[in-house]
Amino acid sequence: MKRVVAKTRWAVRTAMAAVGTLALCAAVAPPASAGGGDCVGQTCLVVERSGLYVARATVTPAPGAKFFGHYRLYGGGVDNKSASQHWHEGLRYTVAWGRGVPDHTKICAEGWEQTGGKLKPLGTKCVEIRK
């Protein structure tokens, strides 16, 4: 009888460990991208999200782009501007949203080049967040 109880306990513990491992893997899986990676002009935007929860948005220069200026990321209650600097492929500006947004919220990135004291638009890319 003790042997049956011991085997049953072992089976239950093994099953619970497997369930716990699967739950942990699901909890730490990276969020899905929302339409990510598309570029308009020299502005590329990737939004990381899960459902209506937006974790972060990242804007990067388009491949081969080189300019002095800044990026602006906005939407869903957030409006941030990067520092003005020399931008080139491989650099990124990321803003942590860390919040849920209403269905059909648009998150946008604008690129701006500074030339001779004037701002020149480099493209605006938006991603619509949907359920």
Verbal overview:
The protein is α+β, with helices and mostly antiparallel strands. Helices cover 21% and strands 54% of the residues. It is built from 1 helix and 10 strands. Strands 1, 2, 3, 4 and 8 form a 5-stranded antiparallel β-sheet that branches. Strands 5, 6, 7, 9 and 10 form a 5-stranded antiparallel β-sheet that branches. It is elongated. The termini are far apart. 25% of the residues are buried. Residues 18-36 have low confidence and may be disordered.
Topology (elements, then pairings):
Elements: H1 2-28, E1 32-33, E2 38-40, E3 43-50, E4 53-61, E5 66-75, E6 78-81, E7 85-88, E8 93-100, E9 105-115, E10 118-129
Antiparallel strand pairs: 1-3, 2-3, 3-4, 4-8, 5-6, 5-7, 5-9, 9-10
Question: What are the main properties of this structure?
Answer:
five-stranded antiparallel sheet, 21% helix, alpha+beta, 131 residues, elongated
